[in-house]
Automatic annotation (TrEMBL):
Highest taxon above the source species: Bacteria
GO MF assignments: steroid dehydrogenase activity, acting on the CH-CH group of donors
The protein's name: FAD-binding protein
Organism: Lactobacillus helsingborgensis
Cofactor(s) needed for function: FAD
Residue intervals of the FAD-dependent oxidoreductase 2 FAD-binding domain: 6-469
Keywords (A to Z) from UniProt: FAD, Flavoprotein, Oxidoreductase
Oxidoreductase keyword on record: yes
GO biological process: steroid metabolic process
Entry-linked Pfam families: FAD_binding_2
Length: 494
């Protein structure tokens, strides 16, 4: 009996922690495992909801039908619309639970944002963002509080314990898991009377899976910020007959600085920290391809910038700006996690200090003339000079006749010193996974649930397709936590 539980959850982060709390609140005996030694820091700071209590207090109301229409269009309906609506119908419950049970008792707050400013269709934005913060606008390290809650609810939490395989009975129903101990490799079997929930995240840290399931993502990203995302939970599901999304979905930041001369096709560094993290990349300044030519409207969702770049030679781009641009960052009015720093725009001095660090690291180049900058960035001199000249002319008229960037984001590059950086994508997470139905049950290729098997978060699929809609700030975290809670509740009710 020692190794027998009602519900077993693999992955103790956003989806898994919420699943564990929800199942335990329903009276289930729960085992929560994670292959790493901690998971607290993975609980994310921007959470999306529509009309949560915090949003009501701030007078914010997000139009559900409009948001669902937008997401359906954004994903070109390559999704299970029932899952979109399931999220929209339950995200507020999750936000309220988080606020009442995790944040308030520990002095944290949900801080709603109402800055969804947009002027063009491509930038359509919603006030979904709830920043999880301290009352003085600092970071709330609420992952610790979630893990405390998990323990308070009587969940057995085992770190350094990896889901290796699912165990099934003759009918194909999932009856338990086989795990391995991280240091000894010792295998253990645990029985689950009511269900197993896969909350193990995506596969961006697994080069072989990236090449197989998301080959363009492998080329256009120069970094992956999910070193532990090895796809092992998804593989375990596939082994017992689960269906999987057939096309990739990802969340990619345009913030991956690389040294001049990098071969992006071969460069895929699995690393969160380091000099390649370039915050200002998410600002819609002048961007050119490796031929020194402007190639599109920089004022688009951050992942669209990387998609457009991937249609240019070398899967890289260069961002170009001048000293005085950095005194006017607030005027770009970026939103959610494309804003600089926390809780919003870095002040000018902080931003300049960061740029100086990147210069010292050799990532950012600084020059007194555009010709010199072109040389340092290894871009064709005449092309870059012409691109900057043309851009400045349009900034002067306030009309981008080449690509239609909004006037408030047209800032000239006409006062030295000039700066430039070569950039590719930073993969935050893959978002395609095991197919589930609205009960969070994992389904097979015929759409039938595999009895007692559930999935949530980035290990699950059918919700995202292609790019991440960053103008619905906090959507991945909310998707993971909301679906985690539903999976926990449903499994406990078996
Ligand atoms: C730097 C950064 C910042 C981000 N900020 C935000 C944000 O503010 N808002 C937002 O909406 N999104 C954000 N995201 C995206 C968000 O983090 C993810 O979408 C979210 O964490 C997904 O949650 P998850 O529970 O599905 O998986 P994860 O958070 O990836 O957790 C999976 C867990 O499973 C464990 N695991 C994996 N395999 C196994 C196995 N075989 N056995 C046992 N355990 C296993 C892992 O160790 C990990 O702890 C950010 C991402 C990054 C990289």
């Amino acid at each position: 009996m020692e190794n027998t539980y009602d519900v077993i959850i693999a992955g103790a982060s956003n989806s898994g922690g919420m699943a564990a709390c929800a199942a335990a609140e329903k009276g289930a005996k729960v085992l929560l495992i994670d292959k790493q030694g901690s998971s607290q820091f993975l609980y994310r700071s921007f959470f999306a909801a529509l009309n949560s209590n915090a949003q009501k207090r701030a007078g914010i109301k997000v139009d559900k039908a409009k948001l669902m229409n937008f997401l359906t269009l954004f994903f070109q309906d390559n999704v299970d619309e029932r899952l979109l609506w399931t999220w929209a119908n339950h995200a507020d419950e999750t936000a309220n639970w988080l606020e009442d049970n995790i944040l308030k008792p520990n002095g944290g707050v949900l801080r709603p944002q109402k800055d969804a400013h947009y002027e063009t269709v491509v930038n359509t934005a919603f006030n979904t963002e709830l920043a999880i913060a301290t009352p003085d606008n600092g970071w709330a390290h609420y992952g610790d509080w979630v893990i405390d809650k998990v323990k308070e609810l009587g969940v057995t939490l085992k770190y350094n314990t990896k889901l290796e395989e699912l165990v099934t009975d003759d009918s194909g129903a999932v009856t338990g898991v086989i795990t391995s101990d991280r240091s000894s490799g010792e295998k253990t079997e645990y029985k689950a009377n009511k269900g197993v929930i896969i909350c193990t995240g995506g596969y961006g840290g697994n080069v072989e899976l990236m090449k197989k399931w998301d080959p363009l993502g492998y080329k256009k990203n120069v970094y992956s910020d999910g070193p532990r995302d090895d796809g092992s939970g998804i593989l375990a599901g596939l082994k017992v007959g689960a269906a999987r999304d057939e096309e990739p979905a990802e969340i990619i930041f345009d913030r991956g600085a690389v040294p001049v001369g990098t071969n992006a096709e071969e460069h895929y560094q699995i690393d969160f920290k380091g000099p390649g993290y370039f915050w200002m990349g998410a600002y819609p300044m002048l961007k050119v391809n490796l031929n020194g030519e402007r190639f599109g409207n920089e004022s688009v969702p951050y992942q669209f910038d990387i998609n457009a770049m991937a249609k240019q030679p070398g899967y890289l781009e260069a961002q170009i700006w001048s000293e005085d641009t950095m005194d006017h960052l607030a005027q770009f009015r970026t939103q959610g996690c494309s804003r600089l720093g926390w809780p919003g725009i870095y002040n000018t001095e902080q931003n300049k200090a960061e740029i100086q660090r990147r210069i010292d690291d050799g990532m950012v180049q600084k020059a007194d003339t555009i010709e010199e900058l072109a040389e340092k960035l290894d871009l064709p001199k005449d092309n870059l000079v012409n691109s900057v000249k043309r851009y400045n002319e349009m900034c002067a008229t306030g009309v981008d006749t080449d690509f239609g960037k909004e006037k408030f984001r047209l800032f000239p590059v006409d006062k030295p010193p000039y700066y430039g950086v070569i950039m590719g994508g930073r993969l935050l997470a893959t978002l395609d996974g095991l197919r589930i139905n609205p009960k969070m049950e994992v389904i097979d290729k015929k759409g039938q649930p595999i009895p007692h098997l559930y999935a949530a978060g980035n290990a699950s699929g059918g919700f995202f397709w292609g790019s991440y809609p960053d103008r619905v700030p906090g959507l991945t975290c909310s998707h993971a936590q909301t679906f985690g809670r539903l999976a926990g509740q449903n499994a406990a009710e078996n």
